[in-house]
Amino acid sequence: MMPTPTAVTVRAAAKINLHLGVGAPRDDGFHPLTTVYQAVGLCDDVTAHPADDLSVDIAGADWVDADAIPTDSGNLAHRAGVLLGDHHGRELGARLVVEKSIPVAGGLAGGSADAAAALVALDRLHDLGTSDTDLLRIAARLGSDVPFALLGGTALGTGRGEVVEPVADVGTWWWVMVPSLEGLSTPAVYRHFDQLFPDASPTPPDAEALLGALRTGQPVSLARALRNDLQEPAIDLRPELGRLIEHGESEGALRGIVSGSGPTVVFLCESADHARDLAGALMRTGSPVVLVANGAVAGSHVVPAHV
Ligand code: C5P
Question: Which residue segments constitute the domains of the chain, with CATH numbers given?
Answer without folding.
Answer: 1-307 (3.30.230.10)
